Amino acid sequence: MHHTERTRLRREPQRGSHDLALIHAIVDEAPICHLGLTDVDGHPLVVPTIHARLGDILYVHGSAASRALRRLAGGIEACCTITHLDGLVVARSGFWSSMNYRSVMIFGRARLVDDPDEAMRALDAIVDHVLPGRSSEIRRPTAKEIAATKVIALPIDEASAKVRTGDPKDDPGDLGTDVWAGTVPFRVVSDPPVPAANLAPHVPVPASVRAASRR
Ligand SMILES: Cc1cc2nc3c(=O)[nH]c(=O)nc-3n(C[C@H](O)[C@H](O)[C@H](O)COP(=O)(O)OP(=O)(O)OC[C@H]3O[C@@H](n4cnc5c(N)ncnc54)[C@H](O)[C@@H]3O)c2cc1C
């Protein structure tokens, strides 16, 4: 991966990083990403979507009829943004109030995955990204399902991370006041799994779902 003027952090550069391990960890922990691209007539489009990373490639998938995926398949530049909201930063003034977060921006040129083996690896990776281990618990996709699905690769050519942690940075003039300040940590939690109304009662909750509901 390289980094150019485009991924040089200007605002609050001390929060920025180009560390690949950090970028990968932020990408892998996020259930979804937002893909930014320009449509044929030049207007911007930001699409929330599921992703998975294999090495230095981010894969997304969708209906073969998807407008955004058709556009990406044409090999255009795209930007993918990923955000974890880690908490509210509650300062003594609105100006210094903020959020704790980990975010990543990836720039790359998208391509259609036309190799069937690569597409299958990507589809399994997407299933396992959402629920680790799930691809080995479910039936394999049919030829018809594969034909209805487009897989797009976005090489993580150039990327940056930005991380904010810790207390508010209040204005020194506000420190003596009795206005509360601190942080409200956020984390993603899940409730116990709910079986489908049409699930046969003898079917046990599989390992992938048990693990996800412990997260
Ligand atoms: C949850 C959350 C809330 C935020 N709220 C605000 C807000 O209210 N107001 C505000 O001004 N900013 C906010 N930010 C920060 C915002 O994402 C930008 O970093 C900031 O606005 C600077 O933008 P810029 O275009 O001037 O960045 P520049 O520093 O000019 O961007 C240059 C390059 O730095 C990298 N970069 C910039 N921002 C990020 C990022 N967040 N993650 C990864 N790489 C990045 C990219 O490679 C980009 O091309 C928030 C971020 C998060 C994650």
UniProtKB/TrEMBL annotation:
InterPro entries: Pyridox_Oxase-rel, Split_barrel_FMN-bd. Pfam families: Pyridox_ox_2. Gene3D superfamilies: Electron Transport, Fmn-binding Protein, Chain A. This is Unannotated protein. It comes from freshwater metagenome.
